[in-house]
Amino acid sequence: MRRSSSLADRLFWPIVAGGAASLWVGPKALAVAGLVVLGLVMHRLGRGGRFRRRVRAIARRHRETLALRRRQESYVDPYGNEILDGWLRERSYFAERTLLPRLEAEGYGDLVEARWDEILDIVEAASLSVAAPDEAAALPEDGIAYERYCAALLEQAGWDARTTKAAGDQGADVVAERDGLRLVVQCKRYAKPVGNGAVQEVVAARSYWGADCAAVVSNAGFTPAARKLAAATDVLLLHHDSLAALGTRPGGRPPR
Asked: Which residue numbers delimit the Restriction endonuclease type IV Mrr domain (predicted)?
């Protein structure tokens, strides 16, 4: 991690130069050196504020995605407790992979460790700055209705989507087609993160239906095991909020 020079380092040479010059030029040189020193002190004192503003600016640019990821990675357990473990991991990931490299490149690397909690608080505030949809009123309670709900969201995105029959679906709750592509989807209306069993099922469904791509969609997050298996098998893990804007990339793959 790159470290910025200390205030003492910055002041040393202006003071030495000003003192030496004053022996030759007189008090005016010393006054100029004093102004330089004062400018450096004021610049240094304002560095913490500039650091915070920079962190806020970067986090604000990603607030929509952060808000979505917070909803995806949080859930309420059967006891009514809000479980944020997945979101806390995602928040740290964003800070480490997105914020940290930029802050280091801009000369703030020496402040990161001491202000890490402040950075996380700023990211948290950005994730909460976007109003969440009223899912309590809109989200179906049972699994079959949730499958229809997901199919309707895909229809909004331009897919020709249909739910499958409960029997013989071979792991696909929704089959959707667009621009010559076929997508199979497992829909999980859960009160806890979805495990890797759903990923295994949709991998089998992709083969059975001859699909180009496969996804597991849930209102909750996904376990680390599910994420690992999905990455290895090229399965998309999505929150249903992502479906209404799900398009296709050049080359035919839905975006991750």
From this structure: 145-246
**Count of domains forming the chain:** 2
- CA atoms within 13 Å, Cβ hemisphere of 41: 9
Give me 208's structure tokens.
């059975």
Percent of the chain topping pLDDT 70: 74
CA distances (Å), 199 to each of 45, 211, 219, 229, in order?
A: 52, 15, 15, 7
Task: Give me 240's structure tokens.
Answer: 């249903």
The amino acid that residue 63 corresponds to is R
Instruction: Count how many residues are written for the chain.
Output: 256
Q: How far apart are CA 187 and CA 205, in angstroms?
A: 13
Instruction: For residue range 174-208, list pLDDT tens digits in order.
Output: 999 999 999 999 999 887 889 999 999 999 999 99
Are 241 and 160 part of one and the same domain? yes
Domain annotation covers residue 72: yes
Residue 201 and residue 211 in contact, taking contact as beta carbons nearer than 8 Å: no
Whose structure tokens read 């607030």? 63
Q: 180: alpha, beta or left, given left = phi > 0 and alpha = psi -120 to 50?
A: left
**C-alpha torsion 114→120→126→131, nearest 10:** -150
Does one domain contain both 145 and 231? yes
CATH number at residue 183: 3.40.1350.10
**Tokens encoding 124:** 């948290």
